[in-house]
């Protein structure tokens, strides 16, 4: 627990000992992505054609918010389809073949460090091309291409045959693009909803920004390296994924708290989304149904973390004396998840009610 005004530790117990962070690890992934890419960074999905203008390739840019629906928030694949259809119509092309390129990310789409039952129950295969990933498609890139084909059809462009994977032509002509919301907004949404898929995509982007392959194996170390670049002490940190699903990940509570202090402070405004994206007790995200009858409602912003045997809570709180604190509590030898969650809530409520300065 650290005073956000003075930077001094108000309380610490085993803060340097690595523990399984579960989804509180997303705080670190978000901070690393904002540092590596910048809060204004956007992810672009493209449609290109080759020497034959009727051969079109849908190219994934690793946008975790791409959606094919009209009723969901995110980057609209329909907008890309409309612009692509117009570009094709302008050159008198009304029938195409469609391929798709998701090669931005490499390596296994399913992290080998995840428990076998996680896909598709709580996470999808990680892909640089996916739409409505929360629907858990078996093959996200193919699913996106099929959705794109259907949307092109709505604009009078027929697709001959089924979409097939193929690298985009090196000298391809760009037909249309669609860009995501700024990264800061994406990080906020990932933290509020505890989006496993989005966190995995961001971790691979951190790897690419470090000039290493966009694989699950490279993503974790790249996140740790980015945190070290921010001046954080990463001693003891082992990250096997970006979402916190990998039980072999181990992080000191002190590292998570230090990242929160940095994000809340004046020296790194590019990290602010790490704090503003934290769920608000009793109001938003994964804390929406917690703290309802607590005096801490609205005063605690925190990221939850839950795996079998693991409960965690990390965030910021305004105490009764008006002082802000960052805190992180990690417990990875839990017998009863509900009892552990209640205990963590009690800790956060006690912090909100204390005059700790």
TrEMBL record:
Q: Does the keyword Nucleus apply?
A: no
Signal peptide feature range: none
Q: What processes in GO biological process is this protein linked to?
A: peptidoglycan metabolic process; proteolysis
- Organism's domain of life? Bacteria
User: What's in the keyword line of the UniProt record?
Assistant: Carboxypeptidase, Hydrolase, Protease
Name of a matching Pfam family: Peptidase_S13
Please name the GO terms that the record assigns under molecular function: serine-type carboxypeptidase activity
Q: Which NCBIfam families match?
A: PBP4
Q: Provide the family line.
A: Belongs to the peptidase S13 family.
User: Could you tell me what this protein is called?
Assistant: D-alanyl-D-alanine carboxypeptidase/D-alanyl-D-alanine-endopeptidase
